[in-house]
Specification:
Elements: H1 10-20, H2 38-62, E1 67-71, H3 78-84, E2 91-96, H4 98-110, H5 112-119, E3 128-129, E4 134-135, E5 139-143, H6 149-158, E6 167-172, H7 180-193, E7 197-202, H8 211-220
Parallel strand pairs: 1-2, 1-6, 2-5, 6-7
Antiparallel strand pairs: 3-4, 4-5
Helix pairs in contact: 1-2, 4-5, 7-8
Length: 224
């Protein structure tokens, strides 16, 4: 999640370099000034483009009548990018450890270019934001431990997750930091919790290492 000298995680620093190279436009990346190696930037560009294309395809297929769950979202900025393109789903959820959520909410509360797009979508009585939670009609940021599926489901339902809606789940560089059993439990929860769902997973693993493939084969009978 970055280092003590960086105001944002590595992914956000890479975003900053990507934006400065005119590959993409982003929001939270304005908070970082650290530059990264070109190969990291190229990898980030490929990752953003690939995941974005899949998200847009899902939104178009469902005509945005759906929900998105970004699990382990960190300082991700997908919500702002989708709003800029008028492609927001019925509700967009982000989940991460409470410490990460607190850090992101602090940035949102005190940076007008982050807060204003959220305010534009909601009246004051439908927007709740404090040091530990953001909830509104179309956007929620929730602190929870992804290793605890019952807690995760309880908190999501509390803030109006709808299991009947078509659901897109996203994990980027998340499962690789968990044990195979923890990853399997999260995938099982996702597979059993929604009537219609798509799961996007992005990981960086060595070609000779296949722990995630083993989990996928065991849980969903598909190595991809």
């Amino acid at each position: 999640l970055g280092n003590s000298h960086s105001p944002l995680p590595l992914s956000a620093c890479s975003s900053r370099n990507t934006e400065m190279s005119s590959y993409a436009q982003d929001h939270l990346v304005r908070l970082s000034k650290e530059r990264k190696a070109p190969e990291i930037n190229r990898g980030y560009v490929a990752r953003v483009h690939g995941v974005s294309q899949l998200i847009k395809a899902f939104l178009q297929k469902t005509e945005c009548h759906c929900q998105i769950l970004n699990l382990g979202a960190g300082m991700d900025t997908i919500f702002w990018r989708l709003k800029d393109e008028d492609l927001l789903p019925s509700k967009y959820f982000e989940v991460d450890f409470p410490m990460i959520v607190t850090r992101k909410l602090h940035s949102i509360k005190y940076k007008p270019f982050l807060l204003q797009p959220i305010i534009e979508l909601h009246s004051e009585d439908t927007l709740q934001i404090d040091g530990h939670l953001l909830d509104s009609k179309s956007y929620a940021i929730i602190g929870a431990d992804l290793r605890d599926s019952p807690e995760l489901e309880e908190k999501l339902k509390k803030w109006n997750m709808n299991p009947q809606l078509p659901t897109l789940l996203i994990t980027e560089r998340v499962l690789v930091y968990k044990t195979p059993e923890q990853s399997a439990n999260l995938l099982k929860w996702a597979a059993n919790s929604f009537e219609t769902a798509m799961f996007i997973n992005y990981e960086q693993v060595k070609g000779s290492s296949r722990p995630l493939r083993a989990v996928c084969v065991r849980v969903v009978a598909n190595p991809l």
